[in-house]
Design goal:
Elements lengths: L2 H10 L3 E3 L1 H9 L4 H7 L4 E6 L7 E7 L5 E7 L8 E7 L16
Parallel strand pairs: 1-5
Antiparallel strand pairs: 2-3, 3-4, 4-5
Length: 106
């Protein structure tokens, strides 16, 4: 099972938590936990970090309730299979990302 499938499964089972940083970033961009959790179903994988030192992580493109793009980093603590951790969520900076919000500008 890929990391995105594992994260989706954990979120669907409510085996998740939000990091303190994650809460701060959600608030800073006017996002809610609910829209991020509900948006994971249709999320698109941008980057996969299977060997991240704190545990496997993924960067997803999701959308808020009005279909604006949101980048969300989810992870699973190293050495564990649960919970899914919402590490951060933010609106992609158009100066750093192509219009598709998937590719970084060069």
């Amino acid at each position: 099972m890929g990391a995105i499938d594992q994260i989706r499964k954990l979120v669907a089972a409510s085996e998740m938590r939000i990091s303190e940083h994650g809460y701060d970033e959600l608030a800073a961009d006017g996002l809610t936990v609910r829209e991020i959790v509900e948006g994971i179903t249709n999320a698109e994988l941008i980057e996969d970090y299977p060997d991240y030192p704190k545990g496997p992580s993924i960067l997803l493109l999701q959308h808020d309730t009005v279909r604006k793009p949101v980048h969300v980093v989810w992870g699973i603590p190293k050495g564990y299979t649960s919970p899914a951790v919402l590490v951060t969520a933010y609106r992609p900076d158009p100066e750093k990302w192509e219009p598709d919000h998937i590719r970084r500008r060069r």
